[in-house]
Amino acid sequence: MKYINKKQKIVLFIIIIITLGIAYYTYTIKINDQFNIEEQNLEVEENKIEESNKIEEETTKIVVHVSGAVRNEGIVELKEKSRIADAIEMVGGVTEDAYMKDVNLATILEDGMKIYIPTKEEVEKQRENTNDSVSKDTNLDIYNNGSNTRKKNNKVNINTATKEELDTLPGIGESTANKIISYREEKGNFKSIEEIKEVSGIGDSKYEQIKNLIEI
Fold first, then answer.
1. What percent of the chain has pLDDT over 70?
2. pTM above 0.85, yes or no
3. pLDDT value of residue 78
4. Alpha-carbon distance values, 55 to 82, 111, 170, 171 (Å)
5. In principle, which of 95, 114, 141, 162 could form an S-S bond with 65, CB 3.0–4.6 Å?
């Protein structure tokens, strides 16, 4: 029987160590390569997401003008589909004397819109002078996109009218007025007066009654 001498054992041990070292080194390189590839892929995806977000931000911004009884009057930039509440928050909120009863904070904003918050004193003076709703006065228009809720032709602007103003239209009661307001809050301002027929409860017959009394 042939025995392995001490010198051969040392040589064998060294060969085993070298083999294990090569195997470990090869395994480590593969792991590092795989990690680097995954890291690069992750970085590429993050860059794509960042670029996409930048493009989205650039293409979905709107600018509105907030004035009246607010802490910091001025022009603010908001995301598309923002609401009046968001614009007021951007200017630091309203002052203590702000009249907020007729302001629908959930109204969706459009680019170029002006939001005016009147004071309680302004409202009281207007009512004393005209015995009319604050929103009918040009100077106290709460929110608009270049026109008042009611113009001199006495038509109702279906994009900015309050529930009370919509209720003055023939065949439009409180329930339908609420539906009109809910529709424009969910889908934005009406693009034409004919679009009001999309509101539940307003068919061709009712539209014929009100079409000469409304505008956008």
1. 81
2. no
3. 92
4. 18, 18, 46, 46
5. 114
